[in-house]
Design goal:
Number of domains: 4
Subunit structure: Oligomeric complex that consists of at least the alpha, beta, beta', gamma, delta, epsilon and zeta subunits.
Keywords: Cytoplasm, Cytoplasmic vesicle, ER-Golgi transport, Golgi apparatus, Membrane, Protein transport, Transport
Number of strands: 23
Shape: elongated
Organism: Apolygus lucorum (Small green plant bug)
Number of helices: 8
Strand content: 25-35%
Pfam family, one: Adap_comp_sub
Strand order of the largest sheet: 11-13-9-8-23-21-16-19-18
Family: Belongs to the adaptor complexes medium subunit family. Delta-COP subfamily.
Structural class: alpha+beta
CATH architecture of the largest domain: 2-Layer Sandwich
Largest sheet: 9 strands, mixed
Length: 512
Amino acid sequence: MVLIAAAVCTKAGKTLLSRQFVEMTKARIEGLLAAFPKLMSTGKQHTFVETDSVRYVYQPMEKLYMVLITTKASNILEDLETLRLFSRVIPEYCRNMEESEIAENGFNLIFAFDEIVALGYRESVTLPQIRTYVEMDSHEEKVYQAVRQTQEREAKNKMREKAKELQRARMEAHKKGGGFSKGTNMSQMGGFGSSSSFTSPVIETPVEMPKPVYTPAKTSGPTKAMKLGGKSRDVEFFVDQLVSEGEKVTSPQNSSKPASTKIPVAPAVHTDEVHLKQEEKLVVTVGKDGGVQNLELHGLVTLRITDDKWARIKILIDNNDKKGIQLQTHPNVDKELFKSKSTIALKNPSKPFPLGTDVGVLKWRYQTQDDSALPLTINCWPSENGQGGCDVNIEYELEHSRLELNDVTINIPLPIGCNPVVTECDGEYKHEGRKNLLQWILPVIDNSNKSGSLEFSAATAIPSDFFPLTVSFLSKNQYADLKPKEVLQIDDDTPVKFSTESIFYTEKYEIV
């Protein structure tokens, strides 16, 4: 065998990390590491030192030593080359050569060491290959995630079934009690409740519940993911019961959303007794050489009424859409009236809208591969500079002048350990070394700064290292050119004062 062990030590002789590559007792390897600082000669800069049985090949790294323990029969030139590769791996995971950094990233370093040496012999690998191998997906992790998602879906389905059963029980109890009270929610009358067939494409959570950590069962097969207690007269009490039993309770719309996706929260706005909210989310995938692979928009208008004297109203929509967006009203809304006059009103004018809850009344969907539909285009040009690195030029351009985009962040991936040198930047930038990410931050993009650029250089990189780029933003302007124009009472067309708010944000925006 050639290479016995690799270790990271302090200059005082303390071993921070050690990886053994051959069969050897713990006492033996500890003895070899303990002997290393005693063999070092003060003031001399030799790269190796020998004993009767082994050779220590080492390299100083600020306050640390990278040490390889080899047999005396090994080729010293190959040992030095292997040592240089080990020394290049450490900065990939540790920004500073400190004890705390080595301890924090110990497992990643050990995984990387195992890619360099197998059974005492060096593998024919390069630094980019090591980086790729260490970051490869785990099949076991994917199986674990699939089992976890299946169990969560089962729990949510059972929760919804039980909620419907409780709703029916409440309806029967109200009927036996002699009718409905004044504040009865319309969901109990077959209206806009949880038993309705309408499914919002955007997150809608009238009740926010705490989210404890969900621990899946150890078995890979499906299990009963919740325990049903006694019947409750209230859905909220039932949801509280689930939470107390350790279930992770979320709204049904959350089940299809990736865990990493964050829904932006719109700032608080003044709301009148009649309040309309427009919410749009955008999913975009663009090729790195140009061309929209997919653009999909989902929108929803919700209505909240807090005073029963305004419960019987109709909403006039100003629809200036020219893109061909597909509109769909709630099943309880008069579709013919909406098609002919762009007016939202209930099929039965004598029935009021529900009070004190957000009711989805209109939704829309738009899907295309037309480049002109993009609200913001990103052009990334990485080019090799002939010195083993890349010069990168990134440009943005606002395509729809009526939009104002806020909190725009363009995330550019970087090779592990890369420290980019930014030469030009419109806006701000931030280097996230731990995440191997360069963030280009633009607080606002509008007509005053419709375009901008970022230029930087990166050593030891190839053009594909900078993809996929991801973009996030939010806007108070709607993508779809439609908005509530007027709210009138059903009986006499008296105008009703109302407030509006709108938010347009990215759910996923990638350049791949």
